[in-house]
Amino acid sequence: YTTGRIGHHRIVMTSICPVDQVTAATVASRLSSNFPGLKVVFLVGLCGGVPTDPGGTDMLFGDIIIGKSAVQHDFGRVYPDGFSGKTGVEDNPGRQGHRIRSFVAKLESMDDLIESSIDCHLKTLLPRAGRWKARYPDLHEGPFPTSDYGPQNYDVEDCPFASECDSHPASTHCEQLRCKLQDIMSQEQFENQLRRHPIIHFGTIASGDVRIQHANDRNRLHNVADIKGFDVEASAVWEYVPCIPIKGVCHYVDSPRTEHRETYAAITATACAQAIME
């Protein structure tokens, strides 16, 4: 653990490594035992997002998701016709206490103020991260998929480059297969969106050791349970400590992941945590 202060708050920091449900639960449990006076735990890190939320707001790389609730998407049973997740109240992490829920509601009412503060922190944090090449992902790192795009390498029969690949296309990166994304945001649309600062989205985060890799699965969970973000560890930490996930969006679950996007999203999530603690 690393202890210290941010502003007038006494803090303790730790990390989850490797990132999986068991490790996350173990770290959270020990954190709670060793520091029984904890008021709130900010789970700061990366997640996948959905290209567009129900309100029509585009979710871009570097945007932040603050979790109002957490569910485990890979908890259920496998039947002959497929997987059936458990969605009952008793099968998912419970609600946080009234104090945490009220605090998140207050944050949601102050999102414009927090976003302005995030911009100020980014001006300080981004130059310090120069050696990691942290910057906003640009059009040259695209293309950027729309909400109905799915990895082309999952349908082997339809992939024109599958025969050129030594491994199974489903386990091979699109860049190796030279796949082309057909449905992407227009360059004009994306350039216009580049001019805005990172924004905050509030909603449910779905977690699980089984990683979702296809747009159909992402959209199904998003439509059924209004899932905004996808990660591995949030639901496990949620069970043990008063937790508020703060996650930077670095991919759309089915889109390629790059070092630039991950680093930039990690920094925006950190800036958000700093802004909240001010």
Structure description:
It is globular and about 45 Å long. The chain has eight helices and nine strands. A hairpin with a 2-residue loop joins strand 1 and strand 2. 33% of the residues lie in helices and 21% in strands. The protein has a domain of 170 residues: Rossmann fold (3-Layer(aba) Sandwich). Helix 3 crosses helix 8. The chain is of the alpha/beta class. About 7% of the residues have low confidence. The strands form three sheets. The protein has a five-stranded mixed barrel.
Write the layout of secondary structure elements.
Elements: E1 2-6, E2 9-13, H1 21-34, E3 41-49, E4 64-72, E5 76-79, E6 82-85, H2 98-109, H3 111-128, H4 174-177, H5 187-194, E7 200-207, H6 215-225, E8 227-231, H7 234-238, E9 243-251, H8 259-277
Parallel strand pairs: 3-9, 4-7, 7-8
Antiparallel strand pairs: 1-2, 3-8, 4-9, 5-6
Summarize the structure.
InterPro entries: NLR-like, Nucleoside_phosphorylase_sf. The protein is α/β, with parallel strands linked by helices and 278 residues long.
